[in-house]
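note to self — DONT lose this again. spent like an hour looking for the file last time. sequence + predicted structure for the chain T wanted, 344 res
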Amino acid sequence: MSIEPPTERLPVVPPPPAPRRPRRGLAGRIVGAVAFALMVSVFLLPDLWFGLDRWSPFTQLIAFRPVLVVGVAVVVVVLGLVTLGMRRAWPFPVAMLVVLGIGVSMLVPRMLADPLPTGGEALKVLSFNVYTGDADVNALADTIRRERPDVVSLPEAGERYRERLMPLIEDLGYTSRASVGERSQDVNGVVALVSPRFGDVDFTVGRVDENSPFPYVVVTGGELGDLRFVAFHSVAPTAGSVAQWRTDLAGAGEWCRGDTPTVVAGDFNASLDHSVLREAMASCGDAASQRGSALTATWPTSLPRWLGSEIDHVFSTTGTAESFEVLDLPGSDHRAVLTTLRLA
């Protein structure tokens, strides 16, 4: 019988603990939140980033800032809910809330109406982009007959559209002028109409510069007195036309400067979120904004009024809007705008 020697038991050494990831400090979380918020602000507030909205794709994005603001608000709510379970994430909703506040502050003034004007001569203005001359001419004639505007601006209407419209309102006594003739497509022109109460007026056709594709119409003289009315259409800021769009708007701004009382109406292809438009028309008042309606979309009609962009305007150097309406007329991708100004 053999006896085995006792086995020596070695102490069990536990494995070393896995290295812990260092916790991100408060400063790091704040830096990350600020960086994220700044990235979002480039798309929501490009006009505040040294005029970044002057170039594509920000020119196109900023036209829908109200929708972007709603999107950022949703992000803030989601991040706020996340912080209920991850309290250390609080810098992110706070930073986004700051960006949201700035975006909202850019919109709120356009929702607040100015005091109603007292006194002054009334001037009713109608502007309607007739969409390459395809808008329902009978519906437009009915609107003119019902509302009896003093002056009318019809972008994307030329001599062809004018000849279809005028016989329908001939008994009303309006005078009119198209900026392009019958040989040119309606999309290239603008038509201006003037009420007979202004008598024998003068029409002048011009361009803001030699490269501008859309000539404007200026109405002066007669019983307008010193007042000048301009029917205007800017080129759309598509990717290849943004530079010309900036030139067109800058040219329109010249009518707002100087001592001549002026009303400019038409399709500017820009909302008040575009810094180019704000700077160009700084010396003019926007009728929609004066009545707290500058967030009502005039384009495109395929989207609800709260979802599109307000790019059709009536600007004035001398008047304040007493009323402002956005009208749906068939056959166009734009809505019409109708305002009554009280001229100082």
